[in-house]
Structure formats: C-alpha cells, structure tokens
Amino acid sequence: MITEATNTIGKAIALSTAKEGALVICTSTTLEKLTPIISKIKENGGIAIALEHTSNSQQSWEKSLSFIIKTYGKIDCFVNCASIISPKMLLGLTNEDLNALQNTVVSPFIYGLKQIIPLMVPNNSGSIINISIVEGLNGLDEHHPYTAIKEVVRSYTLDAAYEYASCNIRVNSICPSVSTTPLIETTFPTIKPYYKKYVQFPDFGNPENVAKWVIYLASDEASFITGAEIVIDSDQIIQ
C-alpha cells in the first residue's frame, strides 16, 4: 500500500515495485489522478489497483484497510509518501500552517501505524517504510519547523521499530535529499546556487533511487534491517 502515490516519488515506487511482482495498492484522495499510474503498471504486465483514501482520516484508514483485508487477506508492506513542505520560519507560521503540517506529515503516518500494525502482528511479518527527507536528520536553516515535524515522524518510526521487532515487523525510513521532478527541472537554474550551499555532488538524485531502496526494504533480503534511516543525498549529510 502506497499512500499519496500520485506524487513523483510515490509514482516511481508504484511502478518499480509492480515491476518486481508486487500487487500494488495506490492511494490518493482523487482517483482520477491515479489512472495514468495504474494504466502504465498494467501495460507493463503488473498488478495494481487505485484506492480513494484520505491519509489524515482515521475513518478512511479503517475503510481502506477493511477493503484490503477483505479482498486480499493481508497487507505485507506500507509505504508512507504523505508530506508537505513549509517555507516559513517558526514565528511566521499561522495556526493554519501548523495544522497543515500536523495533518499532512504526522497524522497520516501515525494513523497508518495504528491501523496497519495490528493487521501485521498475527502474520508475524511486515515492512513499514516511511519516506522522509535528509533534513529531518541534519536540519536545514531555512526550514526549521518543517524539519522539526519530520523529526517527530522519525521518532515514531524508531519507536515502532523497537516496539514491534519481536513481531518481525520492520519499520524503516528513507531520507532522500532533493530529487529530480518536473518542478525541479524547470526551476533548477534558479535554485542551483542554494542547493550548492549544501552539497558538492554535481547532480540531483531521482525518484528511482528511492524506489530501489523501497524494493529492498520491502523484500526478505532486508529481513534483519529495522529502525534504519537510509540516507540518499550524495554528500549533504556529511557537510
């Protein structure tokens, strides 16, 4: 199950995991946005369904997972792609900004954990993968509130990894830096000087870099890995 599979990284994860043979459940608040992704997966011989789902709604989580269990019997992997970015500093945040950060970054992951882990426990297996950012580990001068919110999700990830290790449920984070997206491609000349403040590596990463790690962490090959924070950032974190 991939939440917010319509964003660039979510789409790459859906396409890549389907190619590896996974039955992929792509979710979004708008089904129409998932149509091109599902069509492409099926054209390539993969199996995928689109599921209308609101990640920050407990009721939606209950409804979605009830459907998944009734239809497929279990859920093996949950990939959390829900996120938002806020360019504002702490004193510039309005109450609406704070609520948006909470409802788009923290709540979807916590609701997912609360609903999915009880379904994985009886199977004594499961992989939960949180798509975070490297700034959640080392901070970013211009985005303090955003990185603080990501730190909250990071803490929950580690807590869940520790608490459910005995149930063979693995909970890991992938922390990429800037990835190539259509928006980045069009604005790269403008943001390159800013980007170069933090890294020496000449290129951006791409969504497929993240997708490859999702494939690994979702597989039995990663059966001894939990609580990990996989950094995909060229050399940003070592600056």
TrEMBL record:
<dbReference type="Pfam" id="PF13561">
    <property type="entry name" value="adh_short_C2"/>
</dbReference>
<protein>
    <submittedName>
        <fullName>2,5-dichloro-2,5-cyclohexadiene-1,4-diol dehydrogenase</fullName>
    </submittedName>
</protein>
<comment type="similarity">
    <text>Belongs to the short-chain dehydrogenases/reductases (SDR) family.</text>
</comment>
<dbReference type="InterPro" id="IPR002347">
    <property type="entry name" value="SDR_fam"/>
</dbReference>
<dbReference type="InterPro" id="IPR036291">
    <property type="entry name" value="NAD(P)-bd_dom_sf"/>
</dbReference>
<keyword id="KW-0560">Oxidoreductase</keyword>
